[in-house]
Amino acid sequence: MEKTSTDTLPLTMISSEERETICIFGTGDLGRSLGLRMLQCGYSIVFGSRTPKMSSLLPSGAEVLSYSEAAQKSDTIIMAIHREHYDFLTALTEVLQGKILVDVSNNLKVNQYPESNAEYLAQLVPGARVVKAFNTLSAWALQSGALDASRQVFVCGNDSKAKQKVMDIAQTLGLTPLDQGALRAAKEIENYPLQLFPMWKVPFYLSACLCVFFFVYCVIREVIYSYVKEKKDITFRIAVSIPNRVFPIVALILLAVVYLPGVIAAILQLYRGTKYRRFPDWLDHWMLCRKQLGLLGLGFAFLHVLYTLVIPIRYYVRWRIGNVTATQAITKKENPFSTSSAWLNDSYISLGILGFFFFVLLGITSLPSVSNMVNWREFRFVQSKLGYLTLILCTAHTLIYGGKKFLSPSSFRWCLPSTHIIALIIPCTVLVIKFILILPCIDKILTRIRQGWERSSKFSESAMNGKTDI
Amino acid sequence: MEKTSTDTLPLTMISSEERETICIFGTGDLGRSLGLRMLQCGYSIVFGSRTPKMSSLLPSGAEVLSYSEAAQKSDTIIMAIHREHYDFLTALTEVLQGKILVDVSNNLKVNQYPESNAEYLAQLVPGARVVKAFNTLSAWALQSGALDASRQVFVCGNDSKAKQKVMDIAQTLGLTPLDQGALRAAKEIENYPLQLFPMWKVPFYLSACLCVFFFVYCVIREVIYSYVKEKKDITFRIAVSIPNRVFPIVALILLAVVYLPGVIAAILQLYRGTKYRRFPDWLDHWMLCRKQLGLLGLGFAFLHVLYTLVIPIRYYVRWRIGNVTATQAITKKENPFSTSSAWLNDSYISLGILGFFFFVLLGITSLPSVSNMVNWREFRFVQSKLGYLTLILCTAHTLIYGGKKFLSPSSFRWCLPSTHIIALIIPCTVLVIKFILILPCIDKILTRIRQGWERSSKFSESAMNGKTDI
Amino acid sequence: MEKTSTDTLPLTMISSEERETICIFGTGDLGRSLGLRMLQCGYSIVFGSRTPKMSSLLPSGAEVLSYSEAAQKSDTIIMAIHREHYDFLTALTEVLQGKILVDVSNNLKVNQYPESNAEYLAQLVPGARVVKAFNTLSAWALQSGALDASRQVFVCGNDSKAKQKVMDIAQTLGLTPLDQGALRAAKEIENYPLQLFPMWKVPFYLSACLCVFFFVYCVIREVIYSYVKEKKDITFRIAVSIPNRVFPIVALILLAVVYLPGVIAAILQLYRGTKYRRFPDWLDHWMLCRKQLGLLGLGFAFLHVLYTLVIPIRYYVRWRIGNVTATQAITKKENPFSTSSAWLNDSYISLGILGFFFFVLLGITSLPSVSNMVNWREFRFVQSKLGYLTLILCTAHTLIYGGKKFLSPSSFRWCLPSTHIIALIIPCTVLVIKFILILPCIDKILTRIRQGWERSSKFSESAMNGKTDI
Question: What gap in Å lies between CA A96 and CA A88, rounded to an integer?
Fold first, then answer.
């Protein structure tokens, strides 16, 4: 499922031949690919190379010259060279005077050098106008036209005219330039392609820890316990039964953890009596990764659904039901029907299905293309109202599943309570606090605080402004 | 699953310090957030305030002055003040002469005032060039960088240069400005953030009504009937069995309702003998909410799938099957295998799965990012050909499920027919009419009408043009 | 699920009346719709028509004149006329001198004429500046505002100023103009709306062939075999059992086929000792449709999951289990529990669920709006690491499912091996080769080759450059 060019219109870009000449230093993959694309979009291309010979790899129509000859042909020079080889540029200082140097280089590690490659280049060639751009592109994608991942071109530079020109070139190539400010931003632009899901790290580790903890807990409480006490080997439960105990718990906790910071923030505001004080950093970060936490929760819920639906297919389940039925037939005892069991069973199944349905809905609305189309009121409606509905449904599902067994002593093994009890702590806490917060008397105070009112008189001024201003 | 900044590149926007000064009236949440972002993008910011004191909440680097002092520093003034407090601007009329006033305000209710806030502002300060913009942004999103929902900035104004300037600022802030025309459009722009899924309202209420109707119908026909006639308490069926009867019916009807307006439109065109007459309004509206109808139908189909797959896990089902098997064993009667039952059962299951599969496919292609990538021919292929295939599969699924029971008297209880019969009325009607419409003789006429041909001679001219023109 | 205007802000575009006059030749659907939208965006519109009479269909506010009168009123003329009727323009050559003619026409078939309509127009009216644009729009979408599918406007032309002007108009209309170069590109732009999923063709036919082959294979091996040998009619298996045998096999093969070209490419590079030679065309094409292959595989996997989960609901399965249990009860034989069977069964179920989970994850990340938000490192991580994990899980799932039966003679019927054996050939091949390729000794060579190193000395120069340049 690699990216392909379906997404792009496979038109050979044929140009009206009016565009200027661009010089590219370096004939590596990215240099050649950029050159090819620029040629297709109507630019004249001249490559600068240590060994200026035309090679069959270079796009036809391009010229190859020595560095200094090539540099003289154009005002814009793309530096498709690794930082380690920038030194030769010092010899060209004079030729490069006033020219736009576009640094497209990347490093192998985050913060590999004290300063960014682009800033280093600017130091080496003081007279040139250095712009950082194009480093997030992939040579393969440029060549094949499969550009959906990397259409964005982050641009920064101290000379705004030079920057604008590079942005215009990017636009002409069919890319999306994004102005990132002065050259100081180059460091972050260079680190960007080296990132690996930075926002997902904390949520991922959190859910991994929860999984491991509950897995070990269940193994001890079920497999080892029954081996020690009853000498029964039920290790096979590790494959399906125990994951299907761990996944729903982790899903529910992650869902609750999405709504916990909002509740904490409300308590903080109530306690402080003002909204004009920053939240602690951990709370801010927590708030920013709620989407990731929720999506991971949805993943676990999805697994729980699949693991639950395969139950009747499992050998063990079939074997057990077959045995029970056969025994019933042999002993000729009628198994009486319990309406209350049917009610309990059917309602926790129904709650679970509805909870999962709304969870999936939440997931779909957090797809970028969907969330781009709703306004803030709609977004808040979905993520807050529907979110709490989901949390209530899933918590109720777990509560009813646990049923009466909850506090019966038989559910304690080696003093370890059932996993459901542990799973319900955070969701129930969140729901109870939320319920208290929406009591009219408290909700009124909170709403006033959020509109700018302050309890203490110290900040009365900003409080007054808060009411006047948006 | 709140929005976070994963989506945005978390670059500190560091600017080349060449951009101009912008003045912001009001130091509320949105004012401060806009100021912060503008500072990050290289603008100088001066806040205008009644009580011009620097506060720790204001972004560092900004100046705070009195309103009139601040206004003199810049040509562009962001009005981050509630409409109720605009009066003080009359005193500043002279200072504001010729300046660009950007109205960012919102109201609490749709059409709260007779004229839009921006038009009111333009009346108050006749010499200023008023532009409406930025009102759909969220202060929190601006500050946290989590902008995926609200990157769009609707801009309108009577002075095109002023408007262009505000659009340029929005672009620089990394937002997507959308020109909405003259200041008269401000009313709609101000109503936009107050909307709550306007296109979903009718489809939602329709499906809610269908759900309630069929739910009550099933409760009467099954639960109450068997209580009255057989004194059996089967209320527990309300939790799973009856929803699983209601949801597929509603899903099928909604799917049919998606294709009904197209069929009605074709009949109208055939009847009128021309395409050059507008459809009635209700038909136009119906056509415009087909996507929503279909997606709601998909939601119900999804619930039906889940409710069906949990059947073997249910206590009631296990109990019944166990009893049946035990009885079979006790009476030692062989249960003969019926190939025709196996065929019927397997084929309606298979049709249902395939129908659901194509339904999901339709849903995926209506995701905005997917539908953006297909051309009209492909889109019509998916939504029309694949859509009718889905409708046929789902209708056949229901038909076979009903099986022979359909018209047997036993399926009538209190004269109420089985729900499946009711469910099939609209889908079958749509399919039969569609089948008639694609008969070659009728299809030929319809195609000619759609290419501009007209039956009556009255419009012969436009008919001739219709053939020449696109 | 047709497109509707939810996506677009339903603002009446009300304009500041400063924009220029645009002339539209032809009053067909597209001409009128374009005119309406342009009027809404503030342009003055004058229609040119053979029979210049105002009709109720034309947008109010527009003028209707004869062709030559209309042409004199504007510098920009939209040609909303079928190519077959272009001849009359020769009479207007003088009036059209220097004007921008926008060709919006489409053909009925790919490559219907030797030259594109726009180039034909340019030949007919040599003095005019012809621009191709707007041909991918739908009249209905323009009128209803439901533009999400066709916001893109491909523009090409030899006169860059004329082209820029048309792109500006497109932008003002709220569309997304994309510069496609010189007028030679018009042919491809005209073919674009006639395409029907060009990238999906090969993957679709491949999977269709696989489906048919395995279906026939299974029917022969199971249904016909047991009819011939045991005179048993098990044709009903065609509805569910056999599809559920075919779909997982096709899904697994398609998934393996996604990763096969990457492995072949690596072997080619190792064999050639250089990366500086183009891959054969078939390999390039194969690489470009990996996404489609994977998504089709996901579709089959989804069907397999549904077909598997309905197993316990099927009449045949219930009947068989009931009989087995009853027999067990009658013969009073205890059915012994086999821990190893439970392990095998539970682990292949678990592997299948996890494999499907990651497969869905791969599918979600290939949604354009999701893949737009990740950088190349993240994209490669998901599609390569997670992809191979999925392949390993699914292959293991199939391997364990086959279990010990694999090579037992009883699994051969009429010398035909079990379908699972055939299904596993490609996945196992890919995994084995991949395993060899990531052995440190081979991986080191491959990495060096991909960094530009070459085994032979012939290309030593480019090899040296390859190390210096990006």
Answer: 12
pLDDT of residue B144: 67
Judged by CB atoms closer than 8 Å, whether chains meet at C1 and B291 is answered as yes
**Chain C: touching chains (3 or more CB pairs < 8 Å):** A, B
**In chain A, which residue's Cα lies nearest the Cα of C347?**
A239
The pair of structure tokens assigned to C291 is: 């996404």
Rounded average pLDDT over A402-414: 67
Q: Cα–Cα distance between B210 and B204 in angstroms, integer? A: 10
pLDDT tens per residue, range C298-342: 999 999 999 999 999 999 998 888 888 888 888 877 778 888 888
The ipTM of this complex is 0.85
Q: How far apart are CA A84 and CA A81, in angstroms?
A: 8
Q: Which residues from C are below 8 Å from B159, CB to CB? A: 16
For C2, the 3-state DSSP assignment is coil
Please tell me the distance from the alpha carbon of residue B454 to that of residue C439, in angstroms, as a whole number.
73
Cβ atoms of residues C286 and C226 within 8 Å: no
* Chain centroid, CA C215 distance in Å: 26
Residues A215, A218, A219, A223, Cα dihedral to 10°? -150
Q: Cβ B82–A367 below 8 Å, yes or no?
A: no
Are B125 and B95 in contact, with CB atoms under 8 Å apart? no
User: How far apart are alpha carbons A72 and A75 in whole angstroms?
Assistant: 8
Residues from chain C that touch A310, judged by Cβ atoms under 8 A, are: 308-309, 349, 353
Token digits of residue C53: 């009479």
Mapped onto helix, strand or coil, the DSSP state of residue A125 is: coil
* CA-to-CA separations, A460 to A269, A276, A450, C276, in angstroms, rounded: 16, 11, 14, 71
Residue A221 CA, distance from chain mean position: 35
Chain B residue with CA closest to C191: the answer is B375
To probe the interface with C, which of B3, B168, B339, B470 has the most C CB atoms within 10 Å?
B470
Taking only the tens place, the pLDDT of each residue in A7-51 is 333 344 444 445 689 999 988 888 888 898 888 777 889 999 888
Query: Which parts of C132-280 fold into alpha helices (H)?
Result: 139-144, 160-172, 186-191, 201-218, 225-230, 243-272
What is the C-alpha to C-alpha distance for residues C16 and B161, in angstroms, rounded to an integer?
A: 11
Cβ C370 vs Cβ A363: under 8 Å:
no
Rounded to a whole number of angstroms, the distance from the CA of A146 to the nearest CA of chain C is 8
Separation between Cα atoms, residue A356 and residue B303, nearest integer Å: 10
Distances (CA, A) of A132 to A23, A35, A80: 16, 17, 12
Per DSSP, chain B holds a count of helices (H) and strands (E) of 20, 8
Q: What is the tens place of the pLDDT at every residue in B257-273?
A: 999 999 999 999 999 88
Paired tokens of A109: 């590690």
Are C37 and C175 in contact by the 8 Å Cβ rule? The answer is no
| Cross-chain Cβ contact A80/C469 below 8 Å | yes
- Between B82-96, B287-301, B322-336, C92-106, the lowest mean confidence (pLDDT) is in B322-336
pLDDT digits (tens, 9 = 90+) for C250-284: 999 999 999 999 999 999 999 988 877 778 889 98
pLDDT of res. B352: 95
CA dist A273 to A215, A277, A443, B301, C93, Å?
43, 10, 13, 48, 77
Long-range contacts of residues A165-170, Cβ cutoff 8 Å, at least 24 apart? A165/A76, A165/A100, A166/A76, A166/A100, A166/A102, A166/A131, A166/A133, A167/A133, A169/A22, A169/A38, A169/A43, A169/A76, A170/A133, A170/A134
**Strands C63-65, A176-179: pairing kind:** unpaired
Q: H helices of A93-159, where? A: 93-96, 117-124, 139-144
Encoding tokens for residue C311? 């197993």
Alpha carbon distances (Å) from A151 to A91, A142, C373: 35, 10, 10
pTM attached to this predicted model: 0.87
